[in-house]
């Protein structure tokens, strides 16, 4: 069978969620596809679960490469002319996503990247708690799930928050891009799972990385809460770094709110508070953008 597209699932310690991700990939109605799970040296049984699916190719890295390098590696081993990423805790929203991606690529050889919309959901709770309709390609690529490319040789780097944007920049030297304007993936918010980070991931300042890439006026303040949950030891360092980079933020109430919450609220309370806000409040302001002419899951 001729393979036109690769569904690449980078994974690391995703035993809790990878089964649903693989099932959503297998459900895609496009026939000429391959599904490849690239396990980034998981310490749980992620690879064993993936190997239980007979129509899925599973590769296991000898050492943990990190998400940025693993994303580039996925493109290297893909047999398809095109590739779409699906993080191992996310799912496609309907069975036509891959067909739509292939149709766009085949209709215009100048297109090298396909952006998409997506929504987030809380693990165990259906429905959207946040909708992402980002038409800035580089910002949208902060989340790899659902992003599609023509396959070519690229390099990857483990620079937090800009792992895929760095790959996108390589494509923009040669190709145009477009957007699938419906929610192609549902992104799971679930503690304790990730697609592959290294112990050195936070050695370089995340705030400096993201401001160097997107500019000092990029509003990254919610990242303080994310850092409190993932790397609390560097939170104060990152707040000080933010002020050093742009002292104007001292006059921004949003900066003080997010920094204050991250510093004052104990980590054991912060995640439940965030989930409560998303599930009980923010979800009422969210909607799911359906594929034209079809239902969305």
Question: How does this structure look, described?
Answer:
With 297 residues, the chain is of the alpha/beta class. The chain folds into two domains: 185 residues, Spore Coat Polysaccharide Biosynthesis Protein SpsA, Chain A; 59 residues, no CATH class. Helices cover 35% and strands 19% of the residues. It is built from eleven helices and nine strands. Strands 1, 2, 3, 4, 5, 6, 7, 8 and 9 form a nine-stranded mixed sheet that branches. Helix 1 links the parallel strand 1 and strand 2. The longest helix has 15 residues.
What is the H-and-E element order?
Answer: EHEHEHEEHEEHEHEHHHHH
> How much helix is in the residues?
25-40%
Q: What is the subunit arrangement here?
A: single chain
Named at the architecture level, the CATH assignment of the largest domain is: Alpha-Beta Complex
Overall, the morphology is globular
Uncertain stretches of 5 or more adjacent residues: none
The CATH H-level homologous superfamily of the largest domain: Spore Coat Polysaccharide Biosynthesis Protein SpsA, Chain A
Task: Give the overall pLDDT as a whole number.
Answer: 93
């Amino acid at each position: 069978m001729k393979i036109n597209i690769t569904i690449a699932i980078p994974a690391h310690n995703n035993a809790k969620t990878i089964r649903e991700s693989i099932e959503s990939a297998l459900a895609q109605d496009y026939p000429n596809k391959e599904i490849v799970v690239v396990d980034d040296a998981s310490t749980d049984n992620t690879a064993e679960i993936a190997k239980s699916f007979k129509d899925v190719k599973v590769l296991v890295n000898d050492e943990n490469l990190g998400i940025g390098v693993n994303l580039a590696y996925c493109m290297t081993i893909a047999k398809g002319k095109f590739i779409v990423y699906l993080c191992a805790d996310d799912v496609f929203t309907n069975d036509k996503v891959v067909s739509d991606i292939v149709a766009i690529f085949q209709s215009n050889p100048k297109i090298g990247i396909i952006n998409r919309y997506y929504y987030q959901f809380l693990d165990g709770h259906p429905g959207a708690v946040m909708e992402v309709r980002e038409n800035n390609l580089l910002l949208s690529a902060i989340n790899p799930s659902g992003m599609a490319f023509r396959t070519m040789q690229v390099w990857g780097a483990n620079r937090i928050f800009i792992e895929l944007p760095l790959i996108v920049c390589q494509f923009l030297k040669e190709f145009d891009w477009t957007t699938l304007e419906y929610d192609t993936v549902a992104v799971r918010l679930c503690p304790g799972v990730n697609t592959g980070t290294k112990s050195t991931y936070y050695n370089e300042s995340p705030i400096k990385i993201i401001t160097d890439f997107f500019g000092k006026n990029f509003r990254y303040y919610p990242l303080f809460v994310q850092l409190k949950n993932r790397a609390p030891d560097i939170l104060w360092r990152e707040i000080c770094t933010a002020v050093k980079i742009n002292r104007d933020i001292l006059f921004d109430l949003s900066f003080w709110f997010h920094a204050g919450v991250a510093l004052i609220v104990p980590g054991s309370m912060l995640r439940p508070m965030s989930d409560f806000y998303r599930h009980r409040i923010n979800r009422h302001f969210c909607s799911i953008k359906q594929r034209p002419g079809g239902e969305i899951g």
